[in-house]
Amino acid sequence: MTLRGSKRGFGSAQRTLDNVAKLQKKPKAFAPSARLSAKVDITRHDVNGWPVYHVSPKNLEPDTRAIFLHGGCYVFEINPVHWSFVASLAVEAGTTVIVPIMPLAPTGTASVIVPAVADLVASVIAEVGAGNLSLIGDSSGGGMSLAVAMLLRDRALPPVRRLVLIAPWLDISGTDRMLAVIAPSDPMLAVPGTHAAGGLYRAELAEDDWRVSPLHGDLAGLGPITLFSGTRDIVHADALRFLPLAAAAGLEVDYHEGAGMLHNYPILPMPEGDAARVEIAAAIR
Fold first, then answer.
1. Which of 55, 96, 133, 278 has the fewest CB atoms lying closer than 10 Å?
2. b/e for 242-280, b at 16 or more Cβ within 10 A?
C-alpha cells in the first residue's frame, strides 16, 4: 500500500490540491465495470442531474435497500474497489444497493451535497420505509452518512434500519492529538493532504460545522450504528472520539476494531475485508 504512493500524495497539501486540479480537467470514469453484470443487475436512474445506480442480485427484486456513499476525501471519484464491494454486498445481503454519484469538491460542497443526499434518502424512505433502508458510507462517505442521518433526524424523519460507518472521517480539522501517534504507521493517508481536501469540501462552512465534521454535532436520536475502524488509520482517531460521545447520547453502536488494519480495510479484497463484509451484510439484511 505504501508503494502505491497515496501517502506521499497526501503528505503535502499542495500535491493534493494539484491532483484535484488535474482531475477537474480530466475527470475519472465513475461507471461500474461491465464485468459486474455477471453477478448483479445494474441500472442507472438520474436524479436531479446526478447519476444514481441501483445494484441488485441477479433476477431478484429485493424489498430492502441500502444507500452507499463512497469515500475519496470528497475530491476523488468512486473506484473499482468500491464497485466490487457494492456488488458483493448486494448479493450477500440480498438487497438493492443505491449508489449516487455526487459532484466532487470543489464543485460539490457540503452545504449543497448534504441536503441533496438527505433528499435522496428521504425519497427512498417514502418508497420502502425507514425500516427497510440502511445507509452505508466509507471514509469521507462515512462522515457524510452521519451528517445526513443527523439532518434527517432534524427533519423529523424516522431513523434508517442501520447506519454503517466504515473508517468514517468525522472531523476534517486535523487537530486531534492522536493523529500524530497514528500517522507514522498509516501506509495510505497523511494529515496535510486530507486537511486540504476537507477545506475544498467545507468551502464557506467552519471546520467544526457538523455538516463537515459531525463529531461536533448533536448525536441524540440517531438509529443503530455499526462502526468499523482500523488501528493503522489516521481516522481511527475520530472513531475513538466518537464512541464515548455516542454512548453519552444513548446510541446503540456495534463497534468493530481491526487491530493492525489500514484505512477502509472492510472494503479491501483481503481476508479481514471479507470477514467485515459478512458482518455488514448481516447488519443490513
1. 278
2. bbebbeeeebebeebebeebbbbbbbbeeebbeebbeeb
